Batch of 2 targets.
Target 1
Amino acid sequence: MKLLEEKILREGKVLPGNIIKVDGFLNHRVDTKFLDLVADEFRKYFDVSRITAVLTAEASGIPVATICAHNFGVPLIFAKKAKSDNIENGLYKSEVYSYTYKKTVTLILSTEWLGPNDRVLIIDDFMANGNAVHGLVDIVNQSGASLEGIGIVIEKGFQGGGDRFREMEGVKYRALAVIDSIENNKMTFRKFDE
Amino acid sequence: MKLLEEKILREGKVLPGNIIKVDGFLNHRVDTKFLDLVADEFRKYFDVSRITAVLTAEASGIPVATICAHNFGVPLIFAKKAKSDNIENGLYKSEVYSYTYKKTVTLILSTEWLGPNDRVLIIDDFMANGNAVHGLVDIVNQSGASLEGIGIVIEKGFQGGGDRFREMEGVKYRALAVIDSIENNKMTFRKFDE
């Protein structure tokens, strides 16, 4: 998505450790008008008329997933991060290792809100190694719902998470901007046939 | 807001400890179409043409605040919960005691994203004792921005948080449904002159 790549170059920053900071428009201060364009772009790749819900994980995926769900006319569901070991019944659970926080977190979702009749589009703001989205796919599988696709706003291609999904049979995966390398603070985007 | 009260009675549940569960439409599975009506209702009480941003705290306030920001044509800003004691510079910070989790969390917001020229509407899904919103007001004050109002979807009136804001001079506060008591699982809503 050309507009997104331009916005990343204009407003994003590269921090030490190849951290890409886009918190001025995506995940701290959120440009809600731009998210309409992001939702329109996802609409090109996924048949959103088929989906019954958009699924994401708290917290930074929620704004973009909310706008997508809103514009596609379906509910948003967000998996929560368990706050204690004392997790109640009636939940789908998936353990996810977070490299950012160097610990395992458990994603939880009430079994009330997702079931075999659902057709789910997973949306997240960022993909690095892909662990969080693997946890969401795991939860979709537990629920018996069908996975209609996975849409990511920005993928750090050099961390390999996105390619693991591209290689999966029967999974529609799309990232709107894929950063394949960062050298001397300069980002290179992967080219796709649109 | 009559439609909201009806939805709470129809879809909400009262759990032991006077916990009100509305996670089927507000803060786990989110009814994005209904949030349009919530945003329209806030528009009656606040002059949204004046605001420059909608502010909330992660995580459960983000969906409703995102739709409000989107529909009012301004950015959404969400304060994050600090994940470690090792907090970087360039942040507004406010310590908030959470009764739910029985611990103090620090709300943080990058100083880049809020300043003296901003006019802020705070939006949150729930108000109990009001500590989280006090933290957000504290952050608005630190930034030098002006506070245009505080809009809450559901207030647990019997916990007193909302009344503390109603008594504050110069603060516009509005909750769309105020639950004043729960007896034998029956909720009673506060009546307002609309």
Target 2
Amino acid sequence: MKLVSIGTVAFDTIETPYGKAERVVGGAATYISLAASYFTTDLGLVSVVGGDFPEEELKYMQKRGINLDGLQIKKDEKSFFWAGRYHNNMNSRDTLDTQLNVLADFKPKLPASYRNAKFLMLGNLTPEIQSKVIGQMNKKPKLIVMDTMNFWMDIAMPALKRTIKKVDVLTINDEEARQLSGEYSLVNAAKAIHKMGPKVIVIKKGEHGALLFYNNKMFYAPALPLAQVYDPTGAGDTFAGGFIGYLTQVNSTTFENMKRAVIFGSVMASFCVEEFSIARLKGLKKTAIKKRLKQFEQLTSFSM
Amino acid sequence: MKLVSIGTVAFDTIETPYGKAERVVGGAATYISLAASYFTTDLGLVSVVGGDFPEEELKYMQKRGINLDGLQIKKDEKSFFWAGRYHNNMNSRDTLDTQLNVLADFKPKLPASYRNAKFLMLGNLTPEIQSKVIGQMNKKPKLIVMDTMNFWMDIAMPALKRTIKKVDVLTINDEEARQLSGEYSLVNAAKAIHKMGPKVIVIKKGEHGALLFYNNKMFYAPALPLAQVYDPTGAGDTFAGGFIGYLTQVNSTTFENMKRAVIFGSVMASFCVEEFSIARLKGLKKTAIKKRLKQFEQLTSFSM
């Protein structure tokens, strides 16, 4: 297997200024795997769901090539649930409810076929679980990408830093980069995080794009300005999925390919936000992805 | 004369997390003209100062080629004064003091040599004064660029809209674009503002760069991520100065040149914020501008 992703597979209830979606499919690993499945069909998912998770959604993932041998199904328990409300500007949100359910004592167990993957995507979960998954690999993957969030900085900073030390790429949003590093300038924040272990830092700035720090080199990918953003949920995970999906496809970790990976991450995220839940990520046409890629190319290209 | 700029020439007292600068030189027309002077030496300034404004500063502007025949000096009065304090994130600020002084009854009077300028930059001032300056031109310039701010939207929206109707390009920050249009999405905001008159809208997003809307085309220029931003005062005006300065130099208003102009505006603004007041804009070397331009090119360039 080329790419293994871990993270939640869950239900979300989401309120945005454009409407409400009740108990729709969500979860970091869901978004990551769906986005990555447009770049590689040799990928597996590590997570846990309850008996309440719809079988047809799992079948759809499998149809897209996502191996689910690493997905534990606990028939008598309930799936992880999150409810949130976005503010008018869509850049901030309140958590209304969090029910850990099956996540409360999740012990990831990688199937043998997963343990030689060259690319490992650690979606947002407790840093201990992320660390455990690294430990279950037969050897260090070619690239480990880790996503995390402010929640773990608030309650588990030491464990978080131990996990960060083991990864090659950290994807994180701008506020989180500031919190983690104690530096306001993102340039200085990236330098400080670099010293914690990761060679590469990707700072996600939502509607303002993403910054890639690769040794002393910097790359800035804009987000595509959109007329309507219906639901930002999962945009960061979708970005991560497009990012590592592309790197898996080209089997490379050079700066030039990481730049392209950031663009593909942004392309996939730009689709994600156009509808609630994973609706827009289902059945995307290659031509639609190509067309949007073109828009990204035009958006920043200039000649002197 | 090729380029005429109007706006304030003033004193600022500025507090940022990095320090305080008392009664230093500021003003929209100061920043605009200095930035533009790196692209054309056939430019003039329309403004008013009191007898308190230092002669050596005026001499420096003249040394840079800026014609001051349009600058009224009211010996017995005081220059416009603004005091502000920036918050930690540098993206928002509080106004601590505003003293109109000479601005209270400023009546711009364009010297005859100014009235055939092909490029007119209306820096932030009351919309009535901006309108009056357009009326004093012998014929419609090839390009009129207007900058404004939320203050006029709060107290003089009808007059503001009358002036906006007469200009080709409106430069405005993201929050102001939202306030002016009533649209949250910047894509929709630009469309709404387009209907108010301007063919081109440049939305300045501070550390997040700038968006150019040109008919149905879009261009995104990042801001250069900097380790230290000492003082954002005048960054928007400096951007406008670099923008119209470049267009004046190439005597063109095509999309390709507007894209380059946005990049040059961003280049000049990236210098502006590195020191208090106009310090960094003084005596910039051509090689420094070229080097930074290269950094902007590298920042967003990728190939697929």
